[in-house]
Amino acid sequence: MSTSYQHTVFLNLPVASLADSIAFYTALGFVQNHNFSSPAAAQMSLPSTPTSPTSGPEAHTGVFKLMLLTHDFYRTFLPPGHSIPDPKKVAQQILCISRESREAVDEFLKAVEENGGKRDVRPESEMDRVMKAQGFYGGNAMDPDGHLIECVFMPSEMYAGKE
After folding, report:
1. 65-121: per-residue pLDDT in tens?
2. What is the dihedral of CA 131, 138, 123, 132, to 10 degrees?
3. Which residues form the Glyoxalase/fosfomycin resistance/dioxygenase domain (predicted)?
4. Which one of 28, 69, 112, 154 has the fewest beta carbons within 10 angstroms of its own beta carbon?
């Protein structure tokens, strides 16, 4: 068995406009992998670190990828009888991305707003208050299609050595 294999998580999202979604997620730091993109789909890689290259093969070494799929293409993956829910009305998942600092979280949320998304789409919850008291920092948002996104900074002392 090869020790160089790395597990990868792909989140497939149905999108109304592939071009708009590519632009939106690029503005949030994702990098399009053109080798795995087509007129109906775009693979977007989240680089491993804030200092990772944003072009070339090294830009795609992170373990998390988005697959942005046009509605017609997304439907080809669904079992009979299933449909695409409207993410502005039904939440199936929440994409949560960590950042290296409070400032990086703020920059991320600003980029959401500047690129067609919305931020602060829900009121602060009790869990938000508990996490804030523990040193976490974050915010919530929605992409132009209505998919929910959270961005958080977790100080390393909150989790280092506690796994």
Report:
1. 999 999 999 999 998 899 999 999 998 889 999 999 999 999 999 999 999 999 999
2. 20
3. 11-150
4. 154
